[in-house]
Amino acid sequence: MIHSGDDQAEPQAKIVLRPIIGLTGGLPKSALEPIVIEAIRKHRYLREVAEMRHAEASQHPAPEGAPNAAMLAYVRAMIDVHAQQTVLSTLLDVLGHVPEMPAD
What are the angstrom distances between the C-alpha of 102 and each of 40, 41, 99? Predict the structure, then answer.
């Protein structure tokens, strides 16, 4: 059962995406590294979006017990961040290292 709140933190198994491991596990590192770099950039972008949504939600607090559109936009943005973090973590495990990030 999944529940939210301030329950004591319980150790959790690391989540990996087996389909990503299957798709990328046989690729040469030279082919996988650009995919990982793209995933890092996407994660950074999604994090920036979530930070903007958080700022917007903070400026427009919802009435107690009823989340407003700004808060729901923040929740959706954070779901995207966490989903991409799982993708990125799996890709980094397959690659075996954090690649050098080229200058933008």
Answer: 11, 11, 9
